[in-house]
Write a structure and sequence with these properties.
homodimer; 472 residues; mainly alpha; 3-stranded mixed sheet; two-stranded antiparallel ribbon
């Protein structure tokens, strides 16, 4: 969009959001739902088959949440978020938090207003969490993050105290733009990402968007001197793309044709990016191909050295560049801050100092400028308070699912080492993707793994992986 | 879009078209219009001011046309056109007319059905013409095309018989991709195309799209060995872009915020592309810059030779590559064929031979394959029957408007020769762009030039220009 188009786009999006809201809460939909559902419980009668009961339950969820919001509020929120996003772009470019502060106040007030419409039992933050991760609450997340903090912070300290020094200069030579994309494409094909129903393009920030299971689009970005950026963006977004390609097309346009939660979506991208893409097994097959693609840069670098380099731990300022170990510390500080904002225990103007204090406490570093600190993420400008926890949930789920896959696919390690990734994709599709919102997130997690979300497998995985790499 | 996404997109577009149609013909809109307009005449009461009367007249036009079409027909037509477009892509790629024929039959049947809904006095083709060029009829176009044919075909013969041979090899050396785009951008800036409210990007086929006067986007394409392609695409689409940027933002979202007709829109692109961009005056200023950009290729080519090269006349197979003289012969054959199809005087299966016969008659050449003949344009697959005449109307209008501008801006030639293009843009904005649909196309043409559309100025312009170039 040209810079001058921002105000018009805000109106256009607000109009569309308003129309969609108006249709969802229309008397016609209400009378249909009242006919089929007991409005006091949100449950459909027993005589419906299971998919129909799920469809009605999830439609009722969407309807009853939407009905709590006045249409003019939906329009106002949409317009202000669109405008705030543009203010954030400018503020970040100039690293001027003060330029974002007025928009942030507006958005925060609107989100607090939204929690009042939506209602909550314990914390107003719960009302927002539920938007992205149905069923998630502060009561559930607080002990979960406490467990992570209790073991990640000491683990990081041990890694930093280790005598092992990992050299990753091999990843920062000059790598041809086109060859980087070609290699990313090759990995996507191996993962079973269907290019007949999908694309790979370039963008400033990698993302996945989907219009239908037959039209899924992932993007990556390429830096000449940063091999991991394009590579792991392709794998990460490919994991999202496989979820969207794996949704059941028969349910397209209904809740059953949508992903069950953002935590589940992130679990798919992180499973492929980390459990697969940063594993030794994966590179047994793919490293020789990568060396063949970049012989000058990598021919003399042994597999072990490459594997260590892509798993090097180093506290850094930017979330999207963080390693597996420090990543959740980045999330934790955001969650603590946004929860305090929504509970009105913190003030927007104090954000830079709140941010910097926590960076120091968790990661031992402080950003020199707000562009590398509190202004780095787009989420708050979009009104996406309550979104960040889903990244951590995704990380925890990813290890839970991968461990379950290893149990059910005894040959999985050997298959990955042989570049055969399709059996894993197939397992994920059968166990997770095709169900859409048929089950609630917690129910689906229990169906797949026997448990709800839990940090233990993730922490064990990190402790084992980095214990070995850093000889702890 | 990935290839597999076609069917889903057809449903999505059909759904949106259906919803938009449903809203436009809703009882709410009808009762409002009935309150403000005399439905027997479509006129608003005298007490409204002029913009309001125009707004009501044009809203009534859109409403009453839409109301004649059943919603399920709108949805069916939209879906089939979306699918047919994809069939056309394949058929053209393989140059297999037979692969497009079934879709063409479907679309033709639907368009004939549409003419019955819309109604017409003389020819069913009138009903479709009016979609793109309000007020245009076969009765008006037939003598107009006859005049063009009567003078263009002999003019082409004289050009071909001329002893002057124009050499355009200077345009087909190797030209750097980035520098071509940079030069196109430079010309757009000089034209007054506002990059704060506009973009320039690349696409397979150049086009202009607009979401608001503050968000207008033009595209071009670049061929290393074809300098005119990127250059004149930029200027042509820039002409469209200036129209869209010049619409009055106060009327956005209403008929008064829309262009008055496709013929007028094309007049803007052709005025800039041909009357300005292929004129000697324009290159007096811009040729030295172009030479400076491509010194190796152009330093030794005098301005006169370059000017002749970009105006070389040669009968060719592809419309979008045609010179100014032969362009309307391409249009003429399409208009004759599509009118015969809609009047059921011709059959879809005979299209390739109808096409090739006329190419031979008007241009003296015959395509070796249907991809370069009857399959070259997307329009019929999109259901856009009645669209082609607007290209010719645009050419005629472009010269009428440019001659009027020269009368009203006595310094225009000198300004163009000095690279000062903004006075012309300003004149077009004041005379045409900002009015949107305030007046009917014919009324607006008369306001600007004192006349409705007429081929005489265009023919005189061509005869003078090519008479001089080819020393006829």
């Amino acid at each position: 969009m040209p810079a001058g188009g921002g105000a018009a786009r805000a109106e256009q999006i607000a109009t569309l959001e308003g129309l969609a809201h108006e249709r969802l809460v229309s008397p016609h939909i209400e009378s249909l739902l009242n006919e089929w559902i007991d409005p006091s419980t949100g449950q459909a009668a027993e005589h419906w088959d299971e998919p129909s009961r799920s469809l009605l339950r999830e439609t009722w969820r969407d309807f009853s949440r939407a009905r709590k919001l006045p249409s003019d509020f939906v329009i106002r929120l949409s317009r202000e978020c669109s405008l705030a996003q543009q203010a954030w772009v400018t503020a970040r470019a100039e690293s001027q938090f003060s330029k974002f502060l007025p928009s942030l106040r507006t958005i925060l007030d609107l989100k607090c207003e939204e929690t009042q419409y939506l209602g909550y039992r314990d914390s107003p933050y719960d009302a927002l969490l539920d938007t992205y991760e149905p069923g998630a609450t502060v009561g559930q997340l607080t002990p979960l993050f406490a467990q992570l903090r209790a073991r990640l912070v000491p683990l990081l300290k041990r890694v930093q105290a280790s005598k092992v020094r990992i050299d990753d200069t091999c990843l920062h030579h000059s790598f041809d733009h086109t060859k980087q994309i070609e290699f990313g494409r090759l990995v996507l094909v191996a993962m079973g990402y269907d290019f007949e129903r999908g694309r790979l393009d370039l963008s400033a920030h990698p993302f996945t968007t989907s219009f239908h299971p037959t039209d899924v689009r992932v993007t990556t970005r390429v830096f000449e001197k940063d091999l991991p950026s394009c590579l792991f963006s392709c794998i990460h977004e490919g994991g999202h793309g496989l979820y969207d390609q794996g949704l059941d097309p028969r349910y397209y346009g209904s809740p059953l044709g949508e992903s069950v939660s953002l935590g589940f979506h992130e679990s798919q991208s992180r499973l492929w990016e980390n459990c697969v893409g940063r594993s030794r097994a994966f590179w047994q097959c793919f490293y020789p191909i990568l060396q063949h693609t970049f012989p000058q840069q990598l021919a003399g670098v042994p597999l072990d050295q490459f594997y260590a380099a892509i798993n090097r731990v180093t506290p850094s300022l930017i979330r999207v560049e963080a390693d597996e170990l420090t990543y959740n510390l980045h999330i934790m500080l955001r969650v603590e801050i946004e929860q305090a904002l929504i509970e009105r225990r913190a003030h927007p103007e104090d954000l830079p100092s709140l941010w910097n204090d926590r960076m120091e406490a968790y990661l031992g570093i402080t950003p020199a400028q707000d562009a590398d600190g509190v202004l780095q993420d787009v989420h708050w400008s979009m009104g996406a308070f309550g979104y960040f926890p889903t990244y951590t949930l995704g990380n925890l789920y990813s290890v839970q699912f991968f461990e379950q896959a290893k149990l059910e696919l005894p040959q999985l390690e050997e298959q990955i080492a042989a570049g055969q990734l399709v059996p894993l994709r197939h397992w994920l599709e059968q166990k997770i993707h095709r169900w859409g919102r048929m089950f609630t997130p917690d129910h689906l997690a229990r169906r797949v793994t026997g448990n709800g979300v839990t940090p233990e497998p993730f922490l064990r995985y990190l402790e084992a992986k980095y214990g070995a790499l850093y000889r702890l």
